[in-house]
Amino acid sequence: MLTLYDCATAPSPRRARIFLAEKGVPHETVQVDLRSGEQLGAAYRQVNPQCTVPALRTEDGLLLADNAAIAAYLEARYPEPPLLGGTPAEKADIASWNWRAEFDGLLAIAEALRNSAPAMAGRALPGAMNYEQIPQLAERGLARIEHFFDLLDARLEGRDFVAGGRFSVADITAVVAVDFARIVKKKPQERHAHLLRWRARMGERPAMAL
Q: Which residues contact 131 (CB under 8 A, 6 or more apart)?
């Protein structure tokens, strides 16, 4: 059986949890306590030298150490329902907007959080290496989050899904980004009517509760 190395409070492994749930793929879960720094300990370094979650171990011992690899593997092995698109045009559209949600959304939030939170002093980037905080990047991250909300709201006008005309990994990444923004006290406003409508509809999917 597949084994997911997870952290219930972190956004990146939540993306993998939702993807697995939408695919209906059975798996075991091992929780990694990021708050205590378990990901940096010797035991977890033996699992994933990158010291990050999520990580997915396959039955034959292959370790997939990021969401891109996990999604690609699961889509190839469990093609239904398709979450990376069906036609070439859908695949391209979904890939583009998944990247937008990751770069303009999740990475902007991480920039704001990791460069300002006292608990992350010296840990401005995830992974095995330590990096010092840069306060100006925190300020930029907060501004980028506002722009992301505006971008996503405009995209969702007249649409039920972010890309491809169907539920996809782009919706998963965007939901996780919108929800995680609350950690830096950012959330969509009343003016983001299309975004709020879409998020409410996404909340009807059982996997989004994970």
A: 122, 123, 124, 125
User: Looking at the 3D structure of the chain, how many domains does it have?
Assistant: 2
Looking at residue 197, its pLDDT comes to: 98
The CATH code of the domain that includes 192 is: 1.20.1050.10
| DSSP alpha helix (H) spans, 24-168 | 42-47, 67-77, 88-100, 107-114, 135-156
CB 141 within 8 A of CB 151: no
Number of C-beta neighbours around residue 35 at 10 A: 9
Domain containing 6: what range?
2-77
- Contacts of the segment 128-131: beta carbons below 8 A, 24+ positions apart: 128/40, 128/45, 128/49, 128/50, 128/51
Q: What pLDDT sits at residue 145?
A: 98
DSSP notation for 70-85? HHHHHHHHS-SS-SS-
pLDDT score, position 120: 92
Mapping DSSP to helix (H, G, I), strand (E, B) and coil, where does residue 159 land? coil
Contacts of 139 (CB under 8 A, 6+ apart): 112
Of the pLDDT bands very low, low, confident and very high (cuts 50, 70, 90), residue 25 is very high
pLDDT in tens, 129-163: 999 999 999 999 999 999 999 999 999 999 999 99
Using the structure block, give the residue that is written with the tokens 């939540």: 14
